[in-house]
Amino acid sequence: MSILRATIRPRPLHRAFTRHNSQLAARLAPSAISGSASPIQQLYDLREIDKLTASVAKSSPSNVNHPSPLVMRALPAPWLSASQPNLASQGSKDDLEVDAKSVEEAQKSLGPKHMSESYTTFDLPLASDAGLYDRYVNTSGGFRMGKLLEHLDSLAGAVAYRHALPTPTSSAASAFHEASAKAGLYLATASADRLDMFGRLNKENVRDLKFSGFVTWTGSSSMEVVVKMEGSNTDSSWETLMLGRFVMVCRDSKTHKARKIPPLAVDRDEEKILWAIGDEHQKRRKTTALNALDKVPPSSKEAGDLHELMLKVQEAKDGKIDGQEIVQMKDTEIETVQLMHPQDRNLHGKVFGGILMRLAL
């Protein structure tokens, strides 16, 4: 087993910046990207994005449905198949002997792909299968939301592999593993940028669930994946319960450096809007990284805010500022050590990202 150590610390002051939206994303991107808009406006814009994703899903030529939500969850090689089981990645195990022909085929696969080509879906019939529902019940009789987050991360991985690799012969985890080993690459979750919950999901409202997702934006070696969780209604229709986006990165399995991925072919109006929104998200991530406090000093306004706060703390006599108790930043730090078991591996023998999301919930 491996040991995972995580520390959560208070975040520094946010640095403000000016966003320049493209014409296509101007109507939807502002509230979808930031929290500056009102909750009602944010919900409205997210509903509009939901409609765009539904339009792309309908144009999917394959409508790929996975029989299991755990398709990207575990290393295909059984733990007892080796004389000395270990957690080494599959890449280091067989050194990923990629010949020149495989490299050439991988380069050919870099041709543009449509959003609909990466569309992937799977079902979780909780209302129809009482036995399956039992696996998702928490101590209070409600849902284990952490397990659903695991499925969302697994789905984002399946979508990313479907975009980065040639069309696999099957939806089994081994097919993705063999294709990625042949291409000499692997994909990892860089971040779960946002998850918005629209509807209720509790023991009084058990539904069959449908998960779906596809790539909406690509860079040189990274991509944004939009995922959706829908719940069944009594009239056999489906209602969107959750909408989120993940950033996936592609790496070379030998050098672990950035690896190019196929670009997106954006033709339809809905695709153009989704791509423009994803591009705005990427611009914001870059701006945030460039303006991080470990790279540039605080602005005059930030320094002034910190100085003002320091004076208020010094002047406080009862340990409160404006009626609110003062909490030291050091007192908000949380540190935990978690043991990662063989069942927690992903396709390449590393810790599955969905596990981290569940533990952080």
UniProtKB/TrEMBL annotation:
Which domain of life does this protein belong to?
Eukaryota
GO terms under cellular component:
mitochondrion
Q: Which GO terms describe its molecular function?
A: fatty acyl-CoA hydrolase activity
* Coiled-coil regions listed: none
Q: Does the UniProt entry include the keyword Hydrolase?
A: yes
Keywords recorded for this protein, A-Z = Hydrolase, Repeat, Transit peptide
Domain HotDog ACOT-type span(s) in chain numbering: 115-254, 330-361
The Gene Ontology biological process annotation of the record reads: acyl-CoA metabolic process
The answer to whether the entry has keyword Repeat is: yes
The record's family statement is:
Belongs to the acyl coenzyme A hydrolase family.
What is the protein's given name?
HotDog ACOT-type domain-containing protein
